[in-house]
Design brief:
Layout lengths: L3 E2 L1 H9 L4 E4 L2 E4 L11 H7 L8 H6 L4 H7 L3 E5 L20
Bound molecules: protoporphyrin IX containing FE.
């Protein structure tokens, strides 16, 4: 089953020293990977735990290769919990169908 992760949890994990990023409403744990990232660890640290903006645009704007997108899947840990316009969490399962 796909884990639904609230934004607060993403923020908390980053405060605790992990590096979780959000791309296309999916949550990735790049704690170990960041040291190996060809674009450097700092860009990942700068965007970690952020939601507005999250890492989506930055990731796509770089024009990452197919290999990079394939690699991304290795770090997928869940789908971001949906929020309404007042950013209050809605407790419901995401419709996204992804394989973990
Ligand atoms: C888990 C997420 C990510 C993965 C797996 C990943 C992977 C990679 C890989 C494999 C490359 C080498 C070039 C390529 O194959 O495209 C790369 C380069 C790069 N990435 Fe990422 N990346 C991630 C997230 C990000 C994010 C969020 C940013 C920006 C905030 C970023 C910025 C860059 C930059 C600036 C380069 C260097 C481009 C160059 O100098 O040629 N990456 N990344």
């Amino acid at each position: 089953m796909t884990e639904v992760i609230p934004l607060e949890q993403v923020q908390l994990r980053n405060k605790e020293g992990q590096t979780w990023i959000i791309i296309d409403r999916l949550v990735y744990n790049v704690t170990e990977f960041k040291a190996e990232h060809p674009g450097g660890a700092q860009v990942l640290l700068d965007i970690a735990g952020k939601s507005m903006p999250d890492a989506t645009q930055a990731f796509h704007d770089i024009g990452h290769s197919g290999d990079a997108k394939e690699l991304l899947k290795k770090f997928l840990i869940g789908v971001l919990e949906e929020q309404d316009s007042e950013t209050r969490p809605i407790r419901r399962r995401a419709k996204a169908c992804i394989l973990l």
